[in-house]
Amino acid sequence: MENRPARILVIDDDRDLIELLSRILVREGFEVGGATTAEEALRLAATHGYQLALVDVMLPGMDGFALCRTLRHTPATSDMGILMLTARGDIADKIAGFEAGADDYLTKPFQPKELVYRIRSLLARRHPAPVPRPARSERGLVVAMFGSKGGVGKTTIATNLAVALRQHTRQRVALFDADLFFGDVGVHLNLPTVRTILDMIQSLDGADPEQAEQVLVPHPSGVRVLLSPFRPEEGELITPESIERILEFLRQHYDYIVVDCQPSYDDRMLRILESADEVLMVVTPEVGPLKNTSLFLDLAVRLGYSLDKINVALNRFNSNVGIGPEEIERTLQHEVAFRIISGGRPVVLSVNRGVPLVIEQPDHPFSVQIMRIADHYIQRALNGPSQAPSRSLRGRSAEAEG
Length: 402
Prior knowledge:
45% of the residues lie in helices and 16% in strands. By secondary structure, the protein is an alpha/beta fold. An 8-stranded mixed sheet has the order 8-9-7-10-6-11-12-13, sandwiched between helices. It has a 5-stranded parallel sheet with strand order 2-1-3-4-5, with helices on both faces.
């Protein structure tokens, strides 16, 4: 019984579409049933143990929104995953779907690959597999993603890097959204904000590591995600001491921890940067980000951070805006360790769909470059962090002056 395929109920007034979806999903290993009316769907859902329903909005009689609300308020089906699959793509319809209780919303026409991905993602979120807890003698590697200005692509790189680390190692990877006011990791991975860092703090206060682990939201890739607060004002409730406790917990339970920091120098972010084994500083070939990155590197020297652990990643390096990598290195007095091509439309589409490009298009140049960054940190974890020669002229100058 434990290995029984997930059961999916397709609810649509178009029998041909039900048949088409059934063929697609059966090939993917699911069991599939169909219903052409809401009333038939309610009867089947209550008696056949479906884990997920694909619901069209435009049904005869009771429409999809009303059906969704009924499923949510019926004890036998309240825990069922619901994916609305409809031609109605207006933002008002999407909001109505989520307010009715849907977990996800996909418009027609759709790509079968994306549908299957969203189904697996939804099933993983609502019915996560138990997470093995092997005894760990080593502490996980913490990689802090930082950008001194918003809009440099930091979160896109962070989400793809976490997935790439998981794909390459099959080890335990956590992604911590530490943008405590406007974090977008959940959006990039199409994850609902059901549990957040505030739940983690409460669990750690209760000294229940098992419960704390369940706060992290599972992603189909195997990455587990600690989401930022749902409301911006809740970010003020999080103290530097709480951040330190969370990082220590994650180090003890995960092999790799990717932390997506907010672009600020408050005590919480400084605590992360100080504690991190590695810092990936994301910059774009623009005057503003370069100036702010130079100021950050100066601050790092003054605070006594090891510049050996700071790698500069030049995002959108092929933008042809008149500032090349060599000029950037002279300006920053720090080597550009990684050059990441502008992913253009495929990257934007992957973010909008909530599917990282390393999953959707692993051969895309952007994905290949992310994989190389992942390989770099895998080697650093194997060899010990910050063992490479200094990449910074600032670091050498500081040593000479000392």
